[in-house]
Amino acid sequence: MSLAATAEMPEEFSFSDADFEALARLARAEFGLSLAASKKPLVYSRLARRLRARSLSSFHDYMKLVDCADEVDERLELVSALTTNVTSFFREKHHFDTLRDVLMPELAKQRRVRIWSAGCSSGPEPFSIAMTLLDGFSSLPPDLRILATDIDPAILRRARRGRYPREDCSAVPPPFQSRWLSPASGEPEHVEVSQDLKRIISFAELNLICDWPFKGPFDAIFCRNVAIYFDQDTQQRLWTRFSAMLRAGGFLFIGHSERLSGPAAHEFATAGVTTYRKRVLPVSAQPT
Ligand SMILES: C[S@@+](CC[C@H](N)C(=O)[O-])C[C@H]1O[C@@H](n2cnc3c(N)ncnc32)[C@H](O)[C@@H]1O
Q1: Is the pLDDT of residue 3 over 80?
Q2: What is residue 7's predicted lDDT score, i.e. its pLDDT?
Q3: Ligand 1, atom nearest to 84 Cα
């Protein structure tokens, strides 16, 4: 092996342990993100492009920058760099089967139906929910809404647009493709979801660890592959807050590598793989 191959390359940006700890504190306090010390190299590689974009030479300077009150956008860039937006249509399909087979027969009797896709990324999740609902109801509940939220305003712009590369839609069942996907004007390799789906979804920016400006109750919450980035305390607080937002008997769908834990776990019964149903409390145990 040549000397050049074994010699350590100097890093482009200095990144001390103290800088990493300051960054981990900020990521936890503002976004609930859990950054163990072992993630330092990953954090370096994910954020290096932000330092280049802001013409900075060290993580120390980057921390000073993101600490400024008016650097809201840079803090969003930070969370976006540290998490992923990976998503797909009908991801973890068993959740959509449960929605159709177990929950929808109940929802069909309701006037008002509310479903929340929390951490919706670029939109395939709420659009998959919308397709399942519109296909399954013989007549639509008069007051049917899907709330789709994410912390990342750029990803929400893509979600609202509802345009996707054609090959990203292969998991959409063919009858749903012909009903709700059409060629996107000016982009031959893309398709666009129809207004019928967009009409029942409200997209909104929301940091899940901050206050939620709505009351619910929801019939179901999909929060999949989001809490995985949070430390355990933040996850457990989130499950408790979701429980408070669900009606009795409402469903919580979480990601394949997530688990319900902490005080809220007693408020739910397991209803399938990574699927939980809020228990109906006996009258004596209900809050007065
Ligand atoms: C991996 S995607 C999951 C998308 C979708 N739920 C799914 O399972 O396909 C994670 C999403 O969580 C969002 N996210 C990360 N931290 C968040 C927070 N504190 N509040 C709200 N959304 C957050 C990210 O912006 C990203 O779009």
Answers
A1: no
A2: 47
A3: 1
